[in-house]
């Protein structure tokens, strides 16, 4: 399923019509790009923006403006290099969203044991396709990076069974949840490590008021294990959502920057997933940083209204277009999709998003369909 | 003209008496340093602060406290090194503000075409003097780094004609403006790249409510192009400024940290420009980060009241003396200049501001004149 | 004395019963760890969390799950490596809080000269034990890193006498205090440098309203000198504390990341100091970053309520569990200790907190005793 969820329904069901929505999104995203956004490049005559070749290229001062080619071979080479650069940039954009094997952050449907929602997480080594053709070693929950999304509600009773098939010990910390100490997941402080081949069971009730965007991840040899992919979203829905939370699309965006490179939900551009909404819809984005660096995420075309930090409501919503997300932080924002088009959405540390070979890493798009 | 502007006038003219104010600032800044601030070093007898040599330097434990020189040559060398370090520090301070060739972020007067304000930006390679004698290759708008400041008002109709004289393609993104998609400046998503020798025209109306401190910069091969200098301030004045915005001095400070080193408005200390105000005046500072790193800017002597983020009013102003500015972010602050003197103002990542050769890079001063 | 202070008393005395509290804390912290927190690792039968070996380790897919050893020696080695890793992790936790020589940030009792509180700071080179057995060169105030804590009240008259026994010049900047310009501590702008062997006297009155968490540190060759340890807390208590400030424990946590490694109050884990409170108590933590990097500090088990930035009250308190602290910033938070246990408290840039050799650097614990 998609990372994009409907949540403005009152239903207690948290995993509605996954397959159909997923198919819709894939189709709409691709068609939006193919039929909508990219046609702008073909020259929108209704627009005041016009590309025109300079009246006389030879009269410009630019290095690529030509002149007698025999005597000055360098400009030819520079022009060819510039063309090749553009070609690589275009190829990246046209490939978006590129297919890759594996998809993380999909909703994990719990097994029921009486009143308890039971989630099973198996930790193992896998090969993970970060971007088309680029496979890396990952340490993953249930074979995907990020691990599957756990989504519960305030007051729910939750059991998480962790099976360790890794070559070293691990443990799971529920980052942001205020649990009894023995459920905190820190080896030798709150529990023994879960050794290779062992299983371990966490069980707890989500405390009242502890709703919001949280995470689960390894807390043992974590600089390595989280960097390799042992991380996932743990979202707690409030019993009574506030009006500002009634959105059409609920998207979780997990940032990482370890050995897999710069990734959004485990993938680098052009394999990242676009966020798709219709004009007039509201989108909630839950930023979560599981990396080692800050990532100031910049949305084009529309601003973001910040409503929560680490799951806690901000005293008053505030607006921005670039939100600095530090390691371990979660920030929730609302976007009112009032501006149609395909909007770049990327980390504004530019070397995390673009090279002379084109955009890569922490780049995706918010597509607002008319 | 100076980066410092008067904006508390109701006049619709945005570029008043530029030359005279610029001359005033240059003179006052230099005289303030020469006659005011630095005299404090000569010993202010009205002050309780007194430098005194230790009663008996030989009795101290410090490595530089001497002793028999023949037997212990190292201290002599250490003392000489310490003196040399001080001399370099002093030379840097005394050189401030040092003259360099070229000045960026000066207000660009638009040409009028009916109701449209027309700005022309030519992208080209130049040699840029970052600090005295240090020339670097820059890719610049109109030959300066930052590019000239564009300053308009909510609701204005604006045309920006970009001419590319660079050896590679480019495009201009208006960072923070909520424009129609085809004006967003992202090659292959919203427009074709502007190839070497080509021109391209953007035209749009500034949306209501979209006032504040914004930026324009390259969005093609941007990690390189913005790092080399293709960036500038795009400021939108509100139709109805709030009382807190009625300031005496309006200063824009663009941070960068690419191949030009650590710079404020394209210059490294001591070539940075001081901000000058009179006692009792209010200064607005618009921080803009076009670099790849955070820069927590620290003002000595007075606090800053934060009023806006990315052009959007904060729900309530808040105070600080060190403001962390991340790449792509803009923060607007007000300083009530109630403390006379020359106040250091620098990035608090200390290696961005000082070495054993003295202060450099992201250092300037706020000079409050009695 | 401890960095932990009682401040919820109305008394004007700021240094109460230091020795007895210190002894109490040391004892309680150690006993809490020995008797309380770590017993959870022995298997808490009242808990739903159970460690169990997998029914059949050989049937799992993990690399360490064995098989025929002769033919596949690698898994044996991997298992041994995993065991060794766990052993090192456990040893680190068991050593916490480890004894080291020297303790910084202890309250400095002033000498009285009429109405003036006189503090004497001697700068010198020392050997500093950052973590057990790891000694580094430090440049220190009064021989400790951080320097001793200066704690005064709004309106107090303060004299600080600085004696320089270092091999190079120095100066002291009171970061966050809004002092007369000639007390600002910037060589060649507001004073001459304090040369090796010299003394220098600062004297000022704490301005009204300028209360909060401030710092003092070198402002000469500061990238080096502050990195080596010339830094300390300068705390100004308000005349009239607000209700939210009436806490049981007042803890100052100074972050650094220079040549001494990643440190909290001058020590790396396991030599860091736990914060200890009783269930139901309120703790105030004053984060101060004297380093060159951001440090997003993450508290387990309970959230933090942010009340002040750089000493200035935030317009409204707001909650988080991970607080990004940038160089030069100070953030004050309140923790309501409503969750008993030993809670990990660390920088969430994981390589600042953990390696495959176990936790190190910016790690401590908040111990909430029943």
Categorize the overall geometry of chain A: globular
SS element count, helices of chain A: 3
Give the largest interface: A-C, 64 and 64 residues
Order of helices and strands of chain A: EHEHEEEEEEEEHEEEEEEEEEEEEEE
User: Residue share in helices of chain A?
Assistant: 10-25%
Structure in words:
3 copies of one chain form a homotrimer. In chain A, 12% of the residues lie in helices and 38% in strands. The first copy, chain A, has helices at 18-36, 73-95, 222-225; strands at residues 4-5, 50-53, 111-113, 116-131, 134-141, 150-153, 157-164, 172-175, 199-205, 212-218, 231-237, 249-256, 263-264, 275-278, 282-289, 295-299, 304-309, 312-320, 322-325, 330-336, 341-347, 354-355, 358-359, 363-369. In chain A, strands 1, 12, 13, 15, 17, 18 and 20 form a 7-stranded mixed beta sheet that branches. In chain A, strands 3, 4, 5, 7 and 9 form a 5-stranded mixed beta sheet that branches. Chain A is globular, with a radius of gyration of 23 Å. The two termini of chain A are 24 Å apart. Chains A and C meet through β7, β9, α3 and β18 of A and β2, α2, β18, β21 and β22 of C.
